[in-house]
Request: fold
Amino acid sequence: MRLFVAVWPSEEVLDTVAALRRPDVAGLRWTTRDQWHVTLRFLGSVDDTDLDEVVRAVRSVEATAMATDVSVGPTVGRFGTRILHVPTHGLDEVATATVAATAHVGDRPEPRPFRGHLTLARSRRGDTDLRPFVGTPIDGGWRAEEITLVRSHLGGAGARYEVIERVPLT
Reply:
């Protein structure tokens, strides 16, 4: 099963993101409201028999990470030519604690620094011009009080997510 650890925004932030302009653009696939989350750690494909160990690892984050205020914006950004996103700020310590607690399960942690974000859209081939969307103002925030272990079900219409475990932040 394909797993990741995430934080979900508040309904108010989801409403703010949903209000952004999302025109029909060839080659650009917009994500949906139920997909908007901040990935703290992607675990990749994990064998069903290892799920208990993964859950224990994620639960251990509760002892080291504190609830925190998260903000979005100030503007829409992009990663290269393929990903349009809303930056998030305030989850660095939670992400660090999550990576430390789960480093022994799933795929190796990515070596790059954490860059919290909500993915808005993906360019299928990387040849869609994302520049007209970059710089769009967005502002909001929420209190992150839990992390979740999430299973990703891939499909033609995009991923569907199933929360397997909720872990409160101290």
Observations:
- The chain has a mean pLDDT of 95.
